[in-house]
Design brief:
By secondary structure, the protein is an alpha/beta fold. The protein has four domains: 9-111, Rossmann fold, CATH 3.40.50; 115-137 and 158-194; 196-362, Rossmann fold, CATH 3.40.50; 372-428, no CATH class. The chain contains 15 helices and 16 strands. Helix 1 packs parallel to helix 4 (103-114), helix 5 packs antiparallel against helix 6 and helix 14 runs antiparallel to helix 15. It is elongated and about 90 Å long.
Length: 430
């Protein structure tokens, strides 16, 4: 289902409707998903129903209507905006005489198209195989062949059992590879932690503008397009200095309602990058009428990975489209709670940097300290961290330093061996 440089593959969309959650926003999002996958939507069918049909999910009348459209447009693919059971998927494919994919399969296909890094490709393949494993049902006649021959005497092994065994082996191998990748990722997190630089993690609903904001903050060229799931692989870059201190920013995969559980499980290690952040930046599309529901989806995923209680700053992006003035809003205690900006035009980005500085400053220690000449290693380490704002030397070789240092960095300095560590504790933490 990859997009081609020639004509796009035509497709029919079927929208089952069983409640308020299957309204216009859901239909529009599914249409956008199909376009993002490189498909041309030639027809759509709404299928309101009180409860799902066990055979086709939708009613027989809608199946007949879909069959007529498939024949008229000579379609080879139909997409259903709802999870399908293996039996429903098989029955629809037989009735329509073409391939049928549900919402989960479509999202998995988009992820397969967009994955670029080795880790991303492994994660997507693992999610696809987990999903495929639920499709190996005994109703599939081509999986019921008996295999015999040398080394296969006796009752033999059905093709279904063979496929399950091979699939299970591949899944175990992918898990092993991903565990190795995750160990390297943890080493990278530890290295960043030792550097002492605070990390902000950009999260949000897919297509909220996270990558555009990330590029503006870090002067990077991460892919940023007006399409769902343009970014899959997490990226960490140094952003513009906040109040003279280095800050790292991480761009992450976007979320979506009813994100397949296979993907949440496969991308858990990637999403957990968020747990090492000093501050989570929740980016919301301010021009989206469904923005509150989308924000709720992100909150649910953050809760699921254990990041629900972490410090958070809301960023309402695309104010130029929503015709909202850039501004900062504070909570009852005076802390920045949310920022309105446009990552595309740059309006309000200065307010965002100000808000980040204030939020990161909640754990920042600012004071003037005197470092004796005998502790040159401690002085050098402070400069390496980039936390020295001003220095004035004394005749005896000591230095008066004006520092602004994160409390976590100060604790790391206090763990230095010998007298340097004891002095760091005395000067910065007491």
């Amino acid at each position: 289902m990859n997009a081609s440089t020639g004509n796009l593959q035509p497709v029919l969309l079927i929208h089952p409707e069983f409640g308020p959650e299957d309204g216009p926003e859901s239909r529009q999002e599914f249409h956008h998903l199909a376009v993002s996958a490189g498909l041309e939507v030639v027809a759509e069918i709404r299928a309101p129903r009180n409860r799902p049909d066990s055979r086709w999910l939708v009613g027989s009348g809608k199946v007949d209507e879909a069959r007529e459209l498939v024949e008229r447009h000579e379609l080879k693919l139909v997409l259903v905006n709802h999870p399908l059971s293996p039996v429903q998927e098989r029955n629809l494919a037989r009735s329509l005489c073409c391939s049928v994919l549900d919402r989960t399969s479509l999202i998995l296909d988009i992820f397969a198209q967009r994955a670029r890094s080795h880790e991303g490709k492994l994660q997507v393949e693992l999610a696809q195989l987990r999903h495929l494993s639920t499709r190996l049902v005994r109703g599939w006649t081509h999986l019921e062949r008996q295999r015999g021959g040398i080394g296969m005497r006796g009752p033999g092994e059905t093709q279904l059992e063979t496929d399950r065994r091979l699939l299970g082996g591949r899944i175990r191998m992918l898990k092993t590879r991903l565990e190795k990748v995750e160990r390297r990722r943890k080493q990278g997190r530890r290295a960043r932690s030792r550097s002492g630089y605070p990390l902000i993690a950009l999260v949000g609903y897919t297509n909220a503008g996270k990558s555009t904001l990330f590029n503006r903050l870090t002067e990077s060229e991460v892919l940023a397009r007006d399409q769902l799931f343009a970014t899959l692989d997490p990226t960490v870059r140094r952003m513009q200095d906040v109040d003279g201190a280095p800050v790292l920013a991480s761009d992450t995969v976007g979320f979506i309602r009813n994100l397949p559980h296979e993907l949440i499980a496969a991308f858990r290690a990637t999403l957990e990058e968020t747990l090492s952040a000093s501050l989570i930046i929740h980016v919301v599309d301010a021009s989206d009428a469904d923005r509150d529901r989308h924000a709720g989806v992100v909150d649910e995923v953050l809760e699921e990975i254990g990041a629900g209680e972490m410090p958070r700053l809301m960023v309402y992006n695309k104010v130029d489209l929503a015709e909202i003035a850039p501004r900062i809003e504070h909570d009852e205690s005076g802390r920045p709670r949310c920022v309105y900006l446009s990552a595309t035009s740059g309006e309000g980005v200065d307010l965002f940097l100000q808000a980040v500085d204030e939020r990161l400053g909640e754990n920042r220690i600012e004071r003037c300290i005197r470092v004796p000449a005998a502790h040159a290693r401690l002085r050098a380490r402070l400069f390496d961290l980039g936390v020295v704002r001003e220095e004035s030397p004394e005749p005896d070789g000591s230095s008066n330093l004006e520092v602004a240092i994160d409390r976590k960095e100060a604790r790391q300095l206090a763990r230095m061996e010998g007298a340097d560590g004891r002095l760091a504790r005395q000067l910065l933490l007491n």
